[in-house]
Write a structure and sequence with these properties.
- The complex is a heterodimer of chains A (13) and B (101).
- Chain A is mostly beta strands and 13 residues long.
- Chain A has no helices and 1 strand.
- Chain B has 101 residues and is of the alpha+beta class.
- In chain B, 18% of the residues lie in helices and 30% in strands.
- In chain B, a hairpin with a 2-residue loop joins β4 and β5.
- Chain B is globular, with a radius of gyration of 13 Å.
- The chains are: A mainly beta (13), B alpha+beta (101).
- At the A-B interface, β1 of A face β2 and α2 of B.
Chain lengths: 13, 101
């Protein structure tokens, strides 16, 4: 399936 | 022969600071199919450990595979692994190579 729009999501821990 | 075999290595990160101190991007259904470390913050547990590097791809957390997991699910697993009191470390299975599924 094509990459979805949140592909540049970054999470900090 | 001569093809670089993607090598993975197990990194044990002691919870030596109040934060893990990494940032990840990627996850299932994105260009980066497995979460990749994009930042390591000074003073965090990962920085103190010194074995995690920006650019490494995380295959497993405490033995749980991140393959096929979307970004938020993978992020939740990492957050819970740091929060849990059961262990005072987190085991990351990482690789230098962009492992395609």
């Amino acid at each position: 399936s094509p990459p979805k729009e949140y592909e540049d999501e970054v999470t900090f821990f | 022969p001569g093809l670089l075999e993607p090598t993975s290595c197990l990194v044990r990160v002691p919870k030596s600071a109040s934060t893990l101190g990494i940032a990840i991007e990627g996850g299932a259904n994105t260009r980066q199919p497995l979460p990749r470390i994009v930042t390591i913050q000074r003073g965090g547990s990962a920085h103190n450990c010194g074995q995690l590097k920006v650019g490494q791809v995380i295959l497993e957390v405490n033995g749980v595979s991140l393959r096929g997991r979307e970004h938020r699910e993978a992020a939740r697993l990492i957050a819970e692994a740091f929060k849990t009191k059961e262990k005072d470390y987190i085991d990351f299975l990482v690789t230098e190579f962009n492992v395609s599924l």
